[in-house]
Amino acid sequence: MQPDASPTPYPELNMVLAALLDGVRAALGDNLIGLYLQGSFAVGDFTPWSDCDFIVVTREDLTREQLAALQRLHPSIHDLPAPYWHNGLEGSYAPAAILRRWSTEPRDPPGEPRADDWADPGLSGSPAVAYPFWYLDHGARTLVRSEHDNTQVVRWCLRERGVVLHGPDPKELIDPVTPAMLRAEVRGTMDKALATGMPMPMVAWQAFYVGLYCRILHAIAMGEVTSKKKAMAWALDALDPRWRGLIARAAALKKGDEATAALPADPGEVAATRDFARYCIGFADRA
Q1: Are residues 254 and 207 in contact, defined by beta-carbon separation less than 8 angstroms?
Q2: What is the pLDDT of residue 3?
Q3: Theoretical Cys-Cys bridge with 229: which of 2, 32, 45, 194, CB 3.0 to 4.6 Å?
């Protein structure tokens, strides 16, 4: 598939992505299949402050030498003259056979069995469930093993909306993710989020949880993934009117508005957000 020479409208980000592709090619050689964007740059409504989510698809999992080369590459990207985007990348290195379809088998990489008490560094310490990719968190300099991107949501975004920087059409690499598969996963995410207690020390986190539950309900209703902006607009019309104020206030918070985002969350808004999460679970189960 012909890659996009200017995959985003931001020249500095395009420079960072070109450096990423050059570095990945040098590090992986013939093990590289493709480099793709997913997340907001795939489904839409990205902003100058969005994360840039990527997936590198490999023929096999990384060798020790390839991993070492990538552990040198990612810190070097932080030195690029791109004030925001030099640390705006987030993504994973996924072996093609594992990316093809979600499964709990094999659970562990070859020669790397995880102990029963293994805690996922990319998922707030969640236990091992499926294969962990090599993962770069937003703003991080080093790769860690994490199941963060080994999900049906990521597969759907990549297959249906992925932006090709190098390699074949992602539809050649990923089996279809059916609406039922997507709904089952995101419904489970609702329970997991609520079980954490949904910590909301800042306004940004309180707004994040409102947006998360709106996106999940939209995915359950429509059987597809969309942007937070579109999901919240849908929720304003589709859900009980008593939640409109909460949703509208969360939607009004713009990423990049650090002064507001970092303020302590209002206790009333925090309580309302947890009530909203419980409402959304009930709404999903009646859908």
Answers
A1: no
A2: 62
A3: 45
pTM above 0.90, yes or no: yes
Cα–Cα distance, 96 to 117 (Å, whole number): 27
Pairing label, strands 52-58, 89-95: parallel
Walk across the sheet containing 32-38 and list its strands: 144-146, 133-136, 89-95, 52-58, 32-38, 163-166
Residue 65, both tokens: 């030498």
H helices present in the chain, as ranges? 11-28, 40-43, 64-77, 96-99, 152-161, 179-195, 203-222, 228-238, 244-252, 258-261, 267-286
Mean pLDDT of 249-259: 83
pLDDT score at 258: 76
What confidence tier does 256 reach under pLDDT thresholds 50, 70, 90? Answer: low
Residue 77 near residue 51 (C-beta atoms within 8 A): no
DSSP assignment of 52-118: EEEEEEESSPPPHHHHHHHHHHHHHHTTSS-TTGGG-EEEEEEEHHHHTS--SSS-S-TT-PPPTT-
On the CB side of 236, CA atoms within 13 Å amount to 15
Q: How far is CA 244 from CA 176, 232, 234, 267, in A?
A: 34, 10, 11, 18
Separation of alpha carbons 14 and 5, rounded Å:
8
Residue 19 token pair: 């450096």
Taking alpha carbons only, the member of 202, 208, 211 closest to residue 229 is 211
Residues 6+ apart with CB under 8 A from 100: 173, 174, 175
**178 Rama class: left (phi>0) / alpha (psi -120 to 50) / beta:** beta
Which single residue is written with the structure tokens 């290195």? 93
